[in-house]
Amino acid sequence: MFKKSTLTTAMLAVLPFSVLSAQDIEHITITANKFEQASVDTLTSVAVVERAEIERANVRDVPTLLNNLAGIDVVRSGGYGQKTSVFVRGAATKYTLVLVDGVRISDANSGDVSFTNIPVNSIERIEVLKGARAAIYGSDAVAGVINIITREQKGHQLALTSGSRNYGGAQLAGQFEADKLTVNYHFGYESTDGYDVTAKDPAAPRSKEHDSDAYDNTNMGIKLGYDLAQYGQLALYAQRSEGEADYDASFGNDAYKFDNHTTKLAWQKQSDVLIQEASISLAQEENTQFLSVVPDGTQPPPNDVYSTKRDEIEYRARYKMTPAVQLMGGVSRLNEDLSSSSAQFSIAERDNTAVFAAAFYDDKRWLLNAVVRSDDYEHHGRANTYTADVGFRASDIVTFRVNHGTAFRAPSLTNAFVKDSPWYLPNIEIKPEEGTYNELGVTVETASVRYDVAIFDNRIDNLISNEFDAQTNKYIPANVGRAHMKGIELSAQFSALGLEHAANLTFLNARDKEKREDLPRRAGKAFNYVLSKQWDKLDVRLAMQYRDKRPSISYFDTDLPSYTVFNLSANYQLLEPVALTMRLENLTDKEYFTSVASKTADGTLLPYEPPGRQVYVGTRITF
Q: Where would one find the signal peptide in this protein (predicted)?
Protein backbone atom coordinates (compact mmCIF):
# COMPACT_ATOMS: atom_id res chain seq x y z
CA MET A 1 0.00 0.00 0.00
CA PHE A 2 2.73 2.46 0.95
CA LYS A 3 4.80 1.99 -2.19
CA LYS A 4 1.78 2.23 -4.43
CA SER A 5 0.47 5.37 -2.70
CA THR A 6 3.87 7.03 -2.79
CA LEU A 7 4.18 6.39 -6.51
CA THR A 8 0.71 7.80 -7.09
CA THR A 9 1.59 10.95 -5.18
CA ALA A 10 4.78 11.39 -7.18
CA MET A 11 2.89 11.01 -10.47
CA LEU A 12 0.29 13.56 -9.42
CA ALA A 13 3.01 15.96 -8.31
CA VAL A 14 4.43 16.23 -11.83
CA LEU A 15 1.09 16.78 -13.58
CA PRO A 16 1.32 19.90 -15.76
CA PHE A 17 -0.47 22.92 -14.32
CA SER A 18 -2.83 22.90 -17.32
CA VAL A 19 -4.75 19.91 -15.90
CA LEU A 20 -5.39 21.64 -12.59
CA SER A 21 -8.73 23.20 -11.88
CA ALA A 22 -9.15 26.91 -11.36
CA GLN A 23 -10.04 26.54 -7.70
CA ASP A 24 -7.75 28.78 -5.67
CA ILE A 25 -5.66 27.61 -2.76
CA GLU A 26 -5.80 30.07 0.12
CA HIS A 27 -2.62 32.04 0.77
CA ILE A 28 -2.20 31.72 4.51
CA THR A 29 -1.11 34.45 6.91
CA ILE A 30 0.51 33.25 10.14
CA THR A 31 2.30 34.63 13.22
CA ALA A 32 5.47 32.52 13.26
CA ASN A 33 7.63 35.53 14.18
CA LYS A 34 4.96 37.01 16.51
CA PHE A 35 3.54 39.24 13.77
CA GLU A 36 1.43 38.48 10.71
CA GLN A 37 3.24 37.37 7.56
CA ALA A 38 2.43 35.28 4.52
CA SER A 39 3.47 31.74 5.43
CA VAL A 40 6.05 31.52 2.64
CA ASP A 41 7.70 34.75 3.87
CA THR A 42 8.33 33.41 7.40
CA LEU A 43 11.09 31.11 6.07
CA THR A 44 9.67 28.44 8.37
CA SER A 45 8.26 24.99 7.70
CA VAL A 46 4.67 25.55 8.72
CA ALA A 47 1.37 23.68 8.66
CA VAL A 48 -1.96 25.40 9.33
CA VAL A 49 -5.36 23.89 10.13
CA GLU A 50 -8.20 26.37 9.62
CA ARG A 51 -11.70 26.24 11.15
CA ALA A 52 -13.21 25.45 7.76
CA GLU A 53 -10.96 22.38 7.49
CA ILE A 54 -11.95 21.24 10.98
CA GLU A 55 -15.62 21.43 10.07
CA ARG A 56 -15.12 19.67 6.74
CA ALA A 57 -13.41 16.76 8.51
CA ASN A 58 -15.82 16.71 11.50
CA VAL A 59 -12.89 15.74 13.74
CA ARG A 60 -13.65 15.31 17.45
CA ASP A 61 -10.22 15.85 19.07
CA VAL A 62 -6.92 17.68 18.57
CA PRO A 63 -4.63 14.60 18.23
CA THR A 64 -6.66 13.45 15.20
CA LEU A 65 -6.26 16.90 13.63
CA LEU A 66 -2.50 16.95 14.15
CA ASN A 67 -1.95 13.41 12.90
CA ASN A 68 -2.72 14.46 9.30
CA LEU A 69 0.12 17.01 9.16
CA ALA A 70 3.54 16.49 7.59
CA GLY A 71 6.26 15.63 10.08
CA ILE A 72 3.84 14.90 12.93
CA ASP A 73 3.16 11.44 14.33
CA VAL A 74 0.69 10.84 17.15
CA VAL A 75 0.99 7.90 19.55
CA ARG A 76 -2.12 7.28 21.65
CA SER A 77 -2.69 5.22 24.77
CA GLY A 78 -6.37 4.67 24.01
CA GLY A 79 -9.22 7.00 23.11
CA TYR A 80 -10.67 10.20 24.56
CA GLY A 81 -8.91 11.50 27.65
CA GLN A 82 -5.97 9.08 27.43
CA LYS A 83 -2.30 10.02 27.32
CA THR A 84 -1.17 11.14 23.88
CA SER A 85 2.37 11.75 22.60
CA VAL A 86 2.87 14.12 19.67
CA PHE A 87 6.22 13.67 17.92
CA VAL A 88 7.25 16.64 15.78
CA ARG A 89 9.90 15.40 13.35
CA GLY A 90 10.79 12.65 15.79
CA ALA A 91 11.17 14.80 18.91
CA ALA A 92 9.15 13.96 22.04
CA THR A 93 6.22 16.13 23.13
CA LYS A 94 8.25 18.05 25.71
CA TYR A 95 10.46 19.50 22.96
CA THR A 96 7.51 21.23 21.28
CA LEU A 97 6.11 24.40 22.84
CA VAL A 98 2.29 24.39 22.89
CA LEU A 99 0.38 27.66 23.22
CA VAL A 100 -3.26 28.71 23.41
CA ASP A 101 -3.58 32.31 22.20
CA GLY A 102 0.14 32.63 22.90
CA VAL A 103 -0.09 31.26 26.47
CA ARG A 104 1.93 28.18 27.56
CA ILE A 105 -0.20 25.18 28.61
CA SER A 106 2.17 22.29 29.30
CA ASP A 107 2.77 20.51 32.60
CA ALA A 108 5.96 22.14 33.89
CA ASN A 109 7.09 18.88 35.53
CA SER A 110 6.90 16.37 32.71
CA GLY A 111 6.50 18.63 29.69
CA ASP A 112 3.37 16.67 28.76
CA VAL A 113 0.42 18.42 27.13
CA SER A 114 -3.19 17.30 27.59
CA PHE A 115 -3.94 17.40 23.86
CA THR A 116 -7.07 15.28 24.29
CA ASN A 117 -8.54 17.81 26.75
CA ILE A 118 -8.27 20.80 24.40
CA PRO A 119 -11.81 21.17 23.00
CA VAL A 120 -11.96 21.27 19.20
CA ASN A 121 -14.97 23.60 19.32
CA SER A 122 -12.71 26.27 20.89
CA ILE A 123 -10.31 26.35 17.93
CA GLU A 124 -10.29 28.85 15.08
CA ARG A 125 -7.00 27.58 13.67
CA ILE A 126 -3.79 25.76 14.60
CA GLU A 127 -0.38 26.95 13.46
CA VAL A 128 2.39 24.35 13.61
CA LEU A 129 5.89 25.79 13.24
CA LYS A 130 8.60 23.19 12.73
CA GLY A 131 12.21 23.73 13.70
CA ALA A 132 14.02 25.51 16.53
CA ARG A 133 12.04 28.62 17.53
CA ALA A 134 13.50 29.26 21.00
CA ALA A 135 15.00 32.60 19.93
CA ILE A 136 11.44 33.86 19.46
CA TYR A 137 9.51 31.80 22.01
CA GLY A 138 12.01 30.65 24.65
CA SER A 139 12.30 27.28 26.42
CA ASP A 140 10.75 24.11 24.96
CA ALA A 141 10.64 25.33 21.34
CA VAL A 142 13.34 22.83 20.31
CA ALA A 143 11.45 20.87 17.64
CA GLY A 144 8.74 23.43 16.99
CA VAL A 145 5.74 25.38 18.25
CA ILE A 146 2.03 24.52 18.15
CA ASN A 147 -0.03 27.69 18.56
CA ILE A 148 -3.78 27.20 18.99
CA ILE A 149 -5.80 30.32 18.17
CA THR A 150 -9.28 30.35 19.68
CA ARG A 151 -12.66 30.70 18.04
CA GLU A 152 -13.88 33.71 16.08
CA GLN A 153 -17.26 32.52 14.80
CA LYS A 154 -19.10 34.90 12.49
CA GLY A 155 -22.76 35.02 13.47
CA HIS A 156 -23.84 32.16 15.73
CA GLN A 157 -23.59 28.38 15.38
CA LEU A 158 -25.07 25.46 17.29
CA ALA A 159 -23.59 22.00 16.70
CA LEU A 160 -25.02 18.72 18.02
CA THR A 161 -23.27 15.36 17.56
CA SER A 162 -24.02 11.77 18.55
CA GLY A 163 -21.77 8.79 18.00
CA SER A 164 -20.33 5.44 18.91
CA ARG A 165 -19.99 4.34 22.55
CA ASN A 166 -22.73 6.72 23.60
CA TYR A 167 -20.79 9.78 22.50
CA GLY A 168 -22.71 13.02 22.79
CA GLY A 169 -21.58 16.57 22.14
CA ALA A 170 -23.17 20.02 22.06
CA GLN A 171 -21.36 23.22 21.13
CA LEU A 172 -22.49 26.82 20.78
CA ALA A 173 -20.31 29.62 19.39
CA GLY A 174 -20.97 33.11 18.17
CA GLN A 175 -20.11 36.77 17.94
CA PHE A 176 -21.67 40.07 19.05
CA GLU A 177 -20.58 43.50 17.85
CA ALA A 178 -21.53 46.86 19.31
CA ASP A 179 -19.79 50.06 18.26
CA LYS A 180 -16.16 49.59 19.36
CA LEU A 181 -16.68 46.28 21.16
CA THR A 182 -16.48 42.79 19.64
CA VAL A 183 -17.38 39.70 21.69
CA ASN A 184 -16.67 36.11 20.59
CA TYR A 185 -17.86 33.24 22.77
CA HIS A 186 -18.10 29.46 22.79
CA PHE A 187 -19.53 26.80 25.10
CA GLY A 188 -19.21 23.06 24.76
CA TYR A 189 -19.86 19.72 26.37
CA GLU A 190 -18.96 16.21 25.27
CA SER A 191 -19.02 12.81 26.93
CA THR A 192 -18.63 9.16 26.05
CA ASP A 193 -18.88 5.84 27.85
CA GLY A 194 -15.54 4.94 26.28
CA TYR A 195 -14.15 1.41 26.10
CA ASP A 196 -11.51 -0.74 27.79
CA VAL A 197 -8.31 0.91 26.51
CA THR A 198 -5.84 -1.89 27.32
CA ALA A 199 -5.79 -5.46 26.02
CA LYS A 200 -6.09 -8.03 28.81
CA ASP A 201 -4.23 -11.24 29.53
CA PRO A 202 -6.88 -14.02 29.25
CA ALA A 203 -4.98 -16.07 31.83
CA ALA A 204 -5.04 -13.28 34.43
CA PRO A 205 -7.92 -12.91 36.92
CA ARG A 206 -10.50 -10.21 36.38
CA SER A 207 -9.62 -6.93 38.11
CA LYS A 208 -10.71 -3.31 38.32
CA GLU A 209 -8.93 -2.75 34.99
CA HIS A 210 -11.66 -4.72 33.20
CA ASP A 211 -13.94 -1.74 32.61
CA SER A 212 -14.85 0.96 30.13
CA ASP A 213 -12.83 4.17 30.40
CA ALA A 214 -15.33 7.02 30.21
CA TYR A 215 -14.66 10.69 29.48
CA ASP A 216 -16.40 14.05 29.75
CA ASN A 217 -15.35 17.65 29.05
CA THR A 218 -17.15 20.92 29.78
CA ASN A 219 -15.58 24.02 28.29
CA MET A 220 -16.17 27.68 27.65
CA GLY A 221 -14.30 30.63 26.24
CA ILE A 222 -14.63 34.32 25.52
CA LYS A 223 -12.63 36.76 23.41
CA LEU A 224 -13.24 40.50 23.78
CA GLY A 225 -11.86 43.24 21.54
CA TYR A 226 -12.22 46.95 22.19
CA ASP A 227 -11.05 49.81 19.98
CA LEU A 228 -9.42 52.62 22.01
CA ALA A 229 -9.09 54.80 18.91
CA GLN A 230 -5.77 56.70 19.05
CA TYR A 231 -4.77 54.74 22.17
CA GLY A 232 -4.75 51.39 20.39
CA GLN A 233 -6.75 48.18 20.86
CA LEU A 234 -7.43 46.04 23.92
CA ALA A 235 -8.15 42.31 23.81
CA LEU A 236 -9.11 39.83 26.51
CA TYR A 237 -8.85 36.07 25.97
CA ALA A 238 -10.21 33.55 28.49
CA GLN A 239 -10.54 29.77 28.09
CA ARG A 240 -11.47 27.02 30.52
CA SER A 241 -12.04 23.27 30.25
CA GLU A 242 -12.76 20.80 33.03
CA GLY A 243 -13.87 17.21 33.20
CA GLU A 244 -12.98 13.63 34.12
CA ALA A 245 -11.49 10.57 32.48
CA ASP A 246 -10.90 6.97 33.52
CA TYR A 247 -7.74 5.04 32.74
CA ASP A 248 -6.40 1.56 33.45
CA ALA A 249 -4.09 0.97 36.43
CA SER A 250 -3.45 -2.37 38.13
CA PHE A 251 -3.33 -0.72 41.55
CA GLY A 252 -3.93 2.72 43.05
CA ASN A 253 -5.71 5.58 41.32
CA ASP A 254 -7.45 4.93 38.01
CA ALA A 255 -9.20 8.18 37.07
CA TYR A 256 -8.42 11.88 36.94
CA LYS A 257 -10.12 15.24 37.03
CA PHE A 258 -8.71 18.13 35.04
CA ASP A 259 -9.19 21.86 35.41
CA ASN A 260 -7.28 23.88 32.82
CA HIS A 261 -7.63 27.56 32.05
CA THR A 262 -5.83 30.47 30.38
CA THR A 263 -6.45 34.22 30.58
CA LYS A 264 -4.64 36.92 28.64
CA LEU A 265 -5.04 40.70 28.50
CA ALA A 266 -3.31 42.27 25.50
CA TRP A 267 -2.80 45.79 24.17
CA GLN A 268 -1.60 46.92 20.77
CA LYS A 269 -0.91 50.37 19.36
CA GLN A 270 0.09 50.95 15.79
CA SER A 271 1.41 53.87 13.76
CA ASP A 272 2.85 54.02 10.24
CA VAL A 273 6.30 52.85 11.40
CA LEU A 274 5.94 51.56 14.97
CA ILE A 275 3.83 48.73 16.41
CA GLN A 276 3.83 48.19 20.18
CA GLU A 277 2.33 45.21 21.98
CA ALA A 278 2.04 44.33 25.66
CA SER A 279 0.33 41.45 27.42
CA ILE A 280 -0.16 39.81 30.78
CA SER A 281 -1.33 36.21 31.05
CA LEU A 282 -2.33 33.64 33.67
CA ALA A 283 -2.61 29.88 33.16
CA GLN A 284 -3.32 26.71 35.10
CA GLU A 285 -2.88 23.06 34.14
CA GLU A 286 -4.18 20.84 36.95
CA ASN A 287 -4.70 17.09 36.93
CA THR A 288 -5.94 15.29 40.05
CA GLN A 289 -5.74 11.50 39.98
CA PHE A 290 -8.07 9.47 42.22
CA LEU A 291 -9.59 6.01 42.70
CA SER A 292 -12.89 5.88 40.83
CA VAL A 293 -14.50 3.09 42.90
CA VAL A 294 -13.53 2.56 46.54
CA PRO A 295 -14.21 -1.03 47.74
CA ASP A 296 -16.35 -1.31 50.86
CA GLY A 297 -14.39 -1.25 54.09
CA THR A 298 -11.19 0.16 52.54
CA GLN A 299 -9.50 3.53 52.53
CA PRO A 300 -8.80 5.11 49.13
CA PRO A 301 -5.20 5.96 48.25
CA PRO A 302 -4.29 9.65 48.46
CA ASN A 303 -5.02 11.79 45.43
CA ASP A 304 -2.07 12.65 43.21
CA VAL A 305 -2.19 16.30 42.14
CA TYR A 306 -0.12 17.60 39.23
CA SER A 307 -0.51 21.37 39.13
CA THR A 308 1.28 24.05 37.12
CA LYS A 309 0.42 27.72 37.50
CA ARG A 310 2.01 30.38 35.34
CA ASP A 311 1.91 34.12 34.95
CA GLU A 312 3.76 36.03 32.26
CA ILE A 313 4.17 39.64 31.23
CA GLU A 314 5.62 40.64 27.87
CA TYR A 315 6.34 43.81 25.92
CA ARG A 316 7.61 43.99 22.36
CA ALA A 317 7.90 46.60 19.64
CA ARG A 318 8.44 46.42 15.88
CA TYR A 319 9.89 49.33 13.90
CA LYS A 320 9.63 49.65 10.11
CA MET A 321 12.99 51.26 9.32
CA THR A 322 12.54 51.10 5.54
CA PRO A 323 10.09 49.30 3.24
CA ALA A 324 12.56 46.37 3.26
CA VAL A 325 13.81 46.39 6.86
CA GLN A 326 11.98 45.81 10.14
CA LEU A 327 13.51 45.68 13.62
CA MET A 328 11.86 44.02 16.61
CA GLY A 329 12.72 43.70 20.26
CA GLY A 330 11.07 42.70 23.48
CA VAL A 331 11.31 41.61 27.09
CA SER A 332 9.29 39.11 29.12
CA ARG A 333 9.06 37.71 32.62
CA LEU A 334 7.62 34.25 33.29
CA ASN A 335 6.79 32.70 36.67
CA GLU A 336 6.08 28.97 37.12
CA ASP A 337 4.65 27.62 40.37
CA LEU A 338 4.24 23.93 41.30
CA SER A 339 3.39 24.44 44.98
CA SER A 340 -0.20 23.16 44.55
CA SER A 341 1.10 19.75 43.44
CA SER A 342 1.06 16.80 45.83
CA ALA A 343 4.78 16.20 45.19
CA GLN A 344 7.18 17.98 47.52
CA PHE A 345 9.95 20.35 46.40
CA SER A 346 12.66 22.18 48.28
CA ILE A 347 11.98 25.00 45.77
CA ALA A 348 8.57 24.95 44.08
CA GLU A 349 8.65 28.19 42.10
CA ARG A 350 10.94 29.91 39.61
CA ASP A 351 11.17 33.02 37.42
CA ASN A 352 12.59 33.54 33.98
CA THR A 353 13.51 36.91 32.52
CA ALA A 354 14.13 37.07 28.78
CA VAL A 355 15.15 39.72 26.28
CA PHE A 356 15.24 39.31 22.51
CA ALA A 357 16.03 41.32 19.38
CA ALA A 358 15.30 40.58 15.73
CA ALA A 359 15.83 41.99 12.25
CA PHE A 360 13.81 41.12 9.14
CA TYR A 361 14.81 42.01 5.58
CA ASP A 362 12.68 41.56 2.45
CA ASP A 363 13.52 43.28 -0.85
CA LYS A 364 11.11 41.08 -2.84
CA ARG A 365 14.00 38.88 -3.99
CA TRP A 366 16.06 38.12 -0.88
CA LEU A 367 14.66 37.50 2.59
CA LEU A 368 16.75 37.49 5.77
CA ASN A 369 15.63 36.83 9.36
CA ALA A 370 17.97 37.08 12.36
CA VAL A 371 16.88 36.68 15.99
CA VAL A 372 18.88 36.53 19.23
CA ARG A 373 17.50 35.87 22.70
CA SER A 374 18.80 35.49 26.24
CA ASP A 375 16.79 33.66 28.94
CA ASP A 376 17.83 33.86 32.59
CA TYR A 377 16.12 30.97 34.42
CA GLU A 378 16.24 31.29 38.17
CA HIS A 379 18.25 28.38 39.67
CA HIS A 380 19.40 27.14 36.22
CA GLY A 381 21.40 30.03 34.79
CA ARG A 382 21.35 31.74 31.42
CA ALA A 383 20.57 30.24 28.02
CA ASN A 384 21.38 32.15 24.82
CA THR A 385 19.77 31.16 21.52
CA TYR A 386 19.57 32.47 17.97
CA THR A 387 18.07 31.77 14.56
CA ALA A 388 19.34 32.81 11.14
CA ASP A 389 17.16 32.27 8.06
CA VAL A 390 17.88 33.12 4.43
CA GLY A 391 15.33 33.01 1.63
CA PHE A 392 15.56 33.55 -2.12
CA ARG A 393 12.59 34.09 -4.45
CA ALA A 394 13.77 32.49 -7.66
CA SER A 395 10.51 33.56 -9.33
CA ASP A 396 7.04 34.71 -8.41
CA ILE A 397 6.11 31.16 -7.44
CA VAL A 398 9.36 29.55 -6.20
CA THR A 399 11.05 30.37 -2.87
CA PHE A 400 14.16 28.66 -1.48
CA ARG A 401 15.04 28.81 2.22
CA VAL A 402 17.91 27.90 4.55
CA ASN A 403 17.34 27.76 8.33
CA HIS A 404 19.79 27.45 11.18
CA GLY A 405 19.08 27.89 14.85
CA THR A 406 19.69 26.86 18.42
CA ALA A 407 17.22 26.05 21.19
CA PHE A 408 17.00 24.82 24.77
CA ARG A 409 14.66 23.21 27.26
CA ALA A 410 15.03 24.24 30.90
CA PRO A 411 15.19 21.44 33.51
CA SER A 412 12.01 20.87 35.48
CA LEU A 413 11.78 21.80 39.15
CA THR A 414 11.36 18.07 39.79
CA ASN A 415 14.76 17.41 38.21
CA ALA A 416 16.46 19.92 40.50
CA PHE A 417 14.40 20.18 43.70
CA VAL A 418 12.12 17.18 44.30
CA LYS A 419 12.21 15.92 47.90
CA ASP A 420 10.75 13.05 49.93
CA SER A 421 10.07 11.05 46.77
CA PRO A 422 10.13 7.24 47.01
CA TRP A 423 11.48 7.09 43.45
CA TYR A 424 13.62 10.12 42.68
CA LEU A 425 16.46 12.24 44.05
CA PRO A 426 17.17 15.82 42.91
CA ASN A 427 20.19 17.05 41.01
CA ILE A 428 20.72 20.75 41.69
CA GLU A 429 23.53 20.82 39.08
CA ILE A 430 21.23 19.70 36.25
CA LYS A 431 21.67 21.77 33.06
CA PRO A 432 19.30 22.75 30.25
CA GLU A 433 18.94 20.46 27.26
CA GLU A 434 20.31 22.07 24.09
CA GLY A 435 19.25 21.80 20.45
CA THR A 436 20.84 22.68 17.11
CA TYR A 437 18.67 22.80 14.00
CA ASN A 438 19.31 23.03 10.24
CA GLU A 439 16.91 22.94 7.30
CA LEU A 440 16.92 23.34 3.52
CA GLY A 441 13.59 23.90 1.82
CA VAL A 442 11.79 25.05 -1.29
CA THR A 443 8.17 26.11 -1.78
CA VAL A 444 6.30 26.31 -5.08
CA GLU A 445 3.05 28.21 -4.76
CA THR A 446 0.53 29.44 -7.33
CA ALA A 447 -3.17 30.22 -7.17
CA SER A 448 -3.94 26.52 -7.65
CA VAL A 449 -1.08 24.47 -6.20
CA ARG A 450 1.33 24.42 -3.30
CA TYR A 451 4.33 22.10 -3.10
CA ASP A 452 6.94 22.08 -0.34
CA VAL A 453 10.13 20.10 0.21
CA ALA A 454 12.06 20.28 3.49
CA ILE A 455 15.29 18.50 4.45
CA PHE A 456 15.86 18.81 8.20
CA ASP A 457 18.49 17.90 10.78
CA ASN A 458 17.78 18.35 14.51
CA ARG A 459 20.29 17.45 17.25
CA ILE A 460 19.55 17.55 20.98
CA ASP A 461 22.44 17.37 23.45
CA ASN A 462 22.59 17.24 27.25
CA LEU A 463 19.42 15.14 27.22
CA ILE A 464 18.11 14.64 30.74
CA SER A 465 17.75 10.98 31.67
CA ASN A 466 16.83 9.43 35.03
CA GLU A 467 19.75 7.19 35.95
CA PHE A 468 19.32 4.43 38.54
CA ASP A 469 21.54 4.79 41.62
CA ALA A 470 22.25 1.40 43.22
CA GLN A 471 23.27 2.91 46.58
CA THR A 472 19.95 4.68 47.17
CA ASN A 473 17.69 2.52 44.93
CA LYS A 474 16.39 5.76 43.42
CA TYR A 475 16.67 7.56 40.09
CA ILE A 476 18.79 10.70 39.72
CA PRO A 477 18.44 12.98 36.67
CA ALA A 478 21.61 13.59 34.68
CA ASN A 479 22.62 15.22 31.37
CA VAL A 480 23.81 12.05 29.65
CA GLY A 481 21.85 11.69 26.42
CA ARG A 482 22.10 12.78 22.79
CA ALA A 483 19.47 12.46 20.07
CA HIS A 484 19.74 13.04 16.33
CA MET A 485 16.66 13.36 14.13
CA LYS A 486 16.96 13.93 10.41
CA GLY A 487 14.72 13.42 7.43
CA ILE A 488 12.79 14.85 4.53
CA GLU A 489 9.21 16.06 4.14
CA LEU A 490 7.34 16.27 0.85
CA SER A 491 3.98 18.08 0.78
CA ALA A 492 1.54 18.80 -2.04
CA GLN A 493 -1.79 20.56 -2.23
CA PHE A 494 -3.55 20.91 -5.57
CA SER A 495 -6.74 20.41 -7.56
CA ALA A 496 -6.78 17.88 -10.38
CA LEU A 497 -9.38 15.92 -12.33
CA GLY A 498 -12.21 17.67 -10.52
CA LEU A 499 -10.94 16.64 -7.08
CA GLU A 500 -8.99 18.37 -4.31
CA HIS A 501 -5.80 16.62 -3.22
CA ALA A 502 -3.58 17.10 -0.16
CA ALA A 503 -0.69 14.72 0.46
CA ASN A 504 2.45 14.61 2.54
CA LEU A 505 5.23 12.08 2.92
CA THR A 506 7.85 12.05 5.69
CA PHE A 507 11.03 9.99 5.89
CA LEU A 508 12.54 10.06 9.38
CA ASN A 509 15.72 8.69 10.95
CA ALA A 510 15.57 9.28 14.73
CA ARG A 511 18.51 7.90 16.71
CA ASP A 512 19.64 7.70 20.30
CA LYS A 513 23.31 8.57 19.82
CA GLU A 514 24.44 7.26 23.20
CA LYS A 515 22.72 3.86 22.92
CA ARG A 516 23.25 3.71 19.15
CA GLU A 517 19.70 2.61 18.46
CA ASP A 518 16.50 4.00 16.97
CA LEU A 519 14.39 6.14 19.24
CA PRO A 520 11.27 4.19 20.28
CA ARG A 521 7.80 4.67 18.82
CA ARG A 522 8.95 6.80 15.86
CA ALA A 523 7.84 5.58 12.44
CA GLY A 524 10.50 5.72 9.74
CA LYS A 525 7.94 6.56 7.04
CA ALA A 526 4.60 8.34 7.33
CA PHE A 527 2.20 9.14 4.50
CA ASN A 528 -1.07 11.11 4.61
CA TYR A 529 -3.42 11.61 1.69
CA VAL A 530 -6.72 13.50 1.64
CA LEU A 531 -9.07 13.41 -1.32
CA SER A 532 -12.14 15.65 -1.31
CA LYS A 533 -14.97 16.68 -3.60
CA GLN A 534 -17.68 19.35 -3.45
CA TRP A 535 -21.01 18.80 -5.23
CA ASP A 536 -23.46 21.65 -4.85
CA LYS A 537 -24.77 20.93 -1.31
CA LEU A 538 -22.65 17.85 -0.58
CA ASP A 539 -19.01 17.79 0.50
CA VAL A 540 -17.17 14.44 0.87
CA ARG A 541 -13.65 13.81 2.13
CA LEU A 542 -11.63 10.58 2.32
CA ALA A 543 -8.40 10.58 4.33
CA MET A 544 -5.75 7.85 4.40
CA GLN A 545 -2.93 7.47 6.93
CA TYR A 546 0.00 5.08 6.62
CA ARG A 547 2.60 4.55 9.32
CA ASP A 548 5.63 2.31 8.90
CA LYS A 549 6.71 -0.13 11.60
CA ARG A 550 8.41 1.40 14.62
CA PRO A 551 10.46 0.10 17.56
CA SER A 552 8.74 -0.27 20.91
CA ILE A 553 10.35 0.84 24.14
CA SER A 554 13.31 -1.37 25.06
CA TYR A 555 11.39 -3.33 27.72
CA PHE A 556 9.23 -4.98 25.05
CA ASP A 557 12.13 -5.47 22.60
CA THR A 558 10.06 -5.67 19.44
CA ASP A 559 8.81 -3.67 16.47
CA LEU A 560 5.25 -2.39 16.38
CA PRO A 561 3.65 -3.28 13.03
CA SER A 562 2.87 -0.83 10.24
CA TYR A 563 -0.74 0.10 9.51
CA THR A 564 -3.02 1.95 7.10
CA VAL A 565 -6.36 3.44 8.13
CA PHE A 566 -9.06 5.35 6.24
CA ASN A 567 -11.43 8.00 7.58
CA LEU A 568 -14.51 9.30 5.74
CA SER A 569 -16.41 12.52 6.42
CA ALA A 570 -19.32 14.24 4.71
CA ASN A 571 -21.42 17.39 5.08
CA TYR A 572 -24.76 18.07 3.43
CA GLN A 573 -26.33 21.55 3.36
CA LEU A 574 -29.95 20.57 3.98
CA LEU A 575 -31.18 24.15 4.26
CA GLU A 576 -29.30 27.44 4.11
CA PRO A 577 -28.80 27.54 7.91
CA VAL A 578 -28.78 23.76 8.52
CA ALA A 579 -26.03 21.27 7.62
CA LEU A 580 -26.00 17.54 8.34
CA THR A 581 -22.61 16.11 9.35
CA MET A 582 -21.07 12.65 9.39
CA ARG A 583 -17.69 11.13 10.21
CA LEU A 584 -16.71 7.47 9.91
CA GLU A 585 -13.34 6.77 11.55
CA ASN A 586 -11.31 3.67 10.70
CA LEU A 587 -13.53 2.86 7.77
CA THR A 588 -12.27 -0.72 7.39
CA ASP A 589 -12.16 -1.41 11.15
CA LYS A 590 -8.42 -2.01 10.92
CA GLU A 591 -6.83 -3.68 13.96
CA TYR A 592 -3.62 -1.83 14.86
CA PHE A 593 -1.89 -0.15 17.78
CA THR A 594 0.80 2.46 18.37
CA SER A 595 1.75 1.78 21.99
CA VAL A 596 2.07 -1.24 24.29
CA ALA A 597 0.77 -1.39 27.88
CA SER A 598 2.28 -4.71 29.06
CA LYS A 599 2.92 -8.31 28.01
CA THR A 600 1.91 -11.80 29.13
CA ALA A 601 4.18 -14.42 30.70
CA ASP A 602 4.81 -15.96 27.29
CA GLY A 603 5.77 -12.59 25.79
CA THR A 604 2.51 -11.74 23.97
CA LEU A 605 2.13 -7.97 23.71
CA LEU A 606 -0.89 -6.35 25.36
CA PRO A 607 -1.35 -3.02 23.56
CA TYR A 608 -3.27 0.13 24.25
CA GLU A 609 -6.26 -0.51 22.04
CA PRO A 610 -7.41 2.04 19.45
CA PRO A 611 -11.19 2.57 19.42
CA GLY A 612 -11.82 0.71 16.16
CA ARG A 613 -14.53 1.82 13.74
CA GLN A 614 -16.52 4.80 15.03
CA VAL A 615 -19.47 6.67 13.55
CA TYR A 616 -20.50 10.23 14.38
CA VAL A 617 -23.56 12.03 12.99
CA GLY A 618 -24.85 15.48 13.78
CA THR A 619 -26.08 18.84 12.62
CA ARG A 620 -24.74 22.40 12.50
CA ILE A 621 -27.19 25.28 12.61
CA THR A 622 -26.07 28.82 11.86
CA PHE A 623 -28.17 31.84 12.76
A: 1-22
